[in-house]
Amino acid sequence: MQMARNAQILDSKTIDELDELEDEEEERVLQEYKRKRLQELRDNASRARYGEVIEISAVEYIKQVNQAGEDVWVVLHLYKSGMPLCTLINDHLRQLALKYPTTKFLKSISTVCIQNYPDKNLPTIFVYNNGELKDQLIGPFAFNGMKCRFQDLEWKLYEFGALETKEKLEKPEGMIDARNNGDAANEFLKSAIRQSMRGDDDDD
């Protein structure tokens, strides 16, 4: 019935009146598209809040990692100055931070963040979400040494779920996927941070 009435109304219109209705409908569709697009841009802007690799200390760990925010992915790199592989990973992370601004990228000199953290475990990357450890890469073997390419590290973090993408990433050709168990390193991290926090309280 409604469609029939609409048809009768349209049939009673002149060509000029129909042209006006068409213009009004196109304007309405355009305005709705603009509204949705602006909302999408606002949403993206509110999420794209990082875009850089932030240097932190042990004292800042709780705030930057555990209190990063709901559903925020955090990538923490423990490194040592002058170690070529750590420098390479830092370079890759800088590029990744620009490409994936919704992920929070952090770095910390290993012995500044964790006292006596062993060099053999470097580079170390911990991946967190909602304050919980989700995955890790520990030591040169996990990165395939100096052969670690940007796309290799990107794929590893994507596979962990730490990178937000509109399109599915494909595993890089020729990539060697080496993994190891980082539970011991993670426990070392937790213990050292607790000791550091207690030390700061004693100083106060």
Automatic annotation (TrEMBL):
SUPFAM superfamilies listed in its UniProt record: Thioredoxin-like
InterPro entries: Phosducin-like_chap/apop_reg, Phosducin_thioredoxin-like_dom, Thioredoxin-like_sf
Domain of life: Eukaryota
Positions of the Phosducin domain: 14-168
Cross-referenced CDD domains: Phd_like_VIAF
Family: Belongs to the phosducin family.
Record's protein name: Phosducin domain-containing protein
